[in-house]
Amino acid sequence: MTTNTVDSRRPRGLGTVLIYLSLVAASLVVLVPLVVVFLTSLKTSREVTEGGGAFRLPDDWLNWSNYTTAFRDGHMLTAFGNTAFILLFSITGTVVIGSMTAYAIDRFDFRGKKPVMGLFLVATLVPGVTTQVATFQVVNSFGLFDTRWAPILLYMGTDIVSIYIFLQFIRSIPVSLDEAARLDGANALSIYWRIIFPLLKPAIATVVIIKGITVYNDFYIPFLYMPSEELGTISTALFRFKGPFGAHWEAISAGAILVIVPTLVVFLFLQRYIYNGFARGATK
Amino acid sequence: MTHTAHTPTTRVAKESTAPRTAPRKTAKSPRPRRGVLRRATPWLFLLVPLALLITFTYVPVANMIYYSFTDWDGVSPEIHVVGTDNYTELFTRPELFRVFLVSFYYLAASVVQIVIALYFATVLSFNLRLRNLFKGILFFPYLINGVAIGFVFLYFFQDGGTLDSVLSWFGAGTDHAWLGDPTSANVSLAGVSVWRFTGLNFVLFLGAIQSIPGELYEAAELDGATRWHQFRYLIVPSIRPVISLSVILAVSGSLSVFEIPYIMTGGATGTTTFVIQTVKLAFQFNKTGLASAAAVVLLLIILLITWIQRRLVPDEKVDLV
């Protein structure tokens, strides 16, 4: 877009003021609930119960004791550990499986290709929430219930979106590269591993980001499949704050902030990839 | 293993009868092995993905349909086939069916959400100051953990919480219990859902609007089109596929709401959604049969909606392969 068009599309006059007002209002709607929770997380239990309104500033801005409580009594450290473990395996699995599937579908002609693509396509229509009643029995019959492998397998095995992202990308890699390698004596596996996989880097980045955020935030699957307290992920561990901390809003707030901060940091550093990734992920 | 690209066609035809079991059989004779291996290669790549797909999507769907015709409790070895009893129960017990009404709150919320997202996407497609900051702020809620959002808004709605404090600044202080009665609770929860998901719609719309070539705006302006005309006759038609996608996501999303109400109210005060009810039937009351019937109904509804959408909006983007 040239500077010219940009300038002609810059709104002018009273309209501009109203537009900025609406943007500021929307930003406040987004930020105020979060900021209040952050303020609460720095207050003492006394300050919270005494009242003075949600917006009263904490007396001591360096009161991190609620965060200590959240870590110690809320088992947040174990939770971060479990989430990291699940993230590591499910993301690696998703990337390998998704790229292999895309490679096989795009680069080979074989009988049964159409039905296979059909299977993946129809599966996108089946919403995961509806089938958990029966998926639970399958997972249980493998003896995986209440282990970290249950969510890992489910995240790996049911991610069709990432297959599409890889498929789209792999099409843009010229087949002549494969052919050149084949003439040099490379087999299918080494073509996939040495040629295709390294060229997929941008797609891998997209999948890692989308999958990472989805898995990090997921509540439903760990909640159903890992009821043990020591297997809590950040979502389920935070959810358990509800019981013991009852009305201790300062501890609950600290837990919530602890969970939000990593997301915020990732977002600030990877903004551009995140917008593109989610836009691509959702339209598939 | 080099691919023998020019295997004689006669051999290809012969070998194609046993493509998958062949590698073992042909291990003795090296020459046909290459062709067979070549044919088996895509299947070797697809082995694990297909196994996972079938195990965790198709087997559950098939089982679920079977369970829905039984009285199974999910644990006992005894399963009795009871025909369509579960479906009859589902459609005749009003309290089981009432949960669908809750979906309408979320459906209405999605309309609000799409309108807000469309407005901000249009506005931020102009060259405004701090554009990226506003974009980031509007999108960020979509990335936040659902449980954290649940707690943030429990505090927001609680007595003397964020909302009450804000209202009291404007002299509209109330002691209304926001989550205290069904209507108010559902509206509040649907509001949280707008807060959470508007960002995704917004970014989708913004991306689509920004891919409209700038010359079109210039041409429109030369023709004397007002800003509203540009929106109505240029922007809306250009991003119609994304809008239709958002509508579909909104409808199926409204039917499968789970996290926010489960975390915030646990389904109390009339906020039970279809998925909360199904999860409770299956895992608290051990009514696997009835829960499966409910899940099958939901699955059918969602498939129906998707089918309608594809009929109404034949969009090449939907055709992925």
UniProtKB/TrEMBL annotation, chain A:
Signal peptide: none
Domain ABC transmembrane type-1: 80-270
SUPFAM superfamilies registered for this protein in UniProt: MetI-like
Main location: membrane
GO cellular component, one term: plasma membrane
Swiss-Prot/TrEMBL keywords: Cell membrane, Membrane, Transmembrane, Transmembrane helix, Transport
Subcellular location: Cell membrane
TM helices/strands, residue ranges: 17-39, 84-105, 117-140, 152-170, 191-216, 251-270
Domain of life of the organism encoding this protein: Bacteria
GO biological process, one term: transmembrane transport
InterPro entries in the cross-refs: MetI-like, MetI-like_sf
Recorded topology in the membrane: Multi-pass membrane protein
CDD domains linked to this entry: TM_PBP2
PANTHER family recorded: ABC TRANSPORTER PERMEASE PROTEIN MG189-RELATED-RELATED, LACTOSE TRANSPORT SYSTEM PERMEASE PROTEIN LACG
Family to which the UniProt record says this protein belongs: Belongs to the binding-protein-dependent transport system permease family.
Protein name: Carbohydrate ABC transporter permease
Organism this protein belongs to: Streptomyces spongiae
Lineage, uppermost ranks: Bacteria, Bacillati, Actinomycetota, Actinomycetes, Kitasatosporales
From TrEMBL, chain B:
Keywords assigned: Cell membrane, Membrane, Transmembrane, Transmembrane helix, Transport
Family (UniProt): Belongs to the binding-protein-dependent transport system permease family.
Pfam families to which the protein is assigned, alphabetical: BPD_transp_1
Region (Disordered): 1-33
Major subcellular location class: membrane
Keyword Cell membrane: yes
Membrane topology: Multi-pass membrane protein
One GO process term, biological-process aspect: transmembrane transport
Ranges of biased composition (kind: Basic residues): 22-33
Database matches in PANTHER family: BLR7065 PROTEIN, INTEGRAL MEMBRANE SUGAR TRANSPORT PROTEIN
Record localization: Cell membrane
Protein known as: Sugar ABC transporter permease
Transmembrane segments: 43-67, 104-126, 138-157, 194-212, 233-254, 290-308
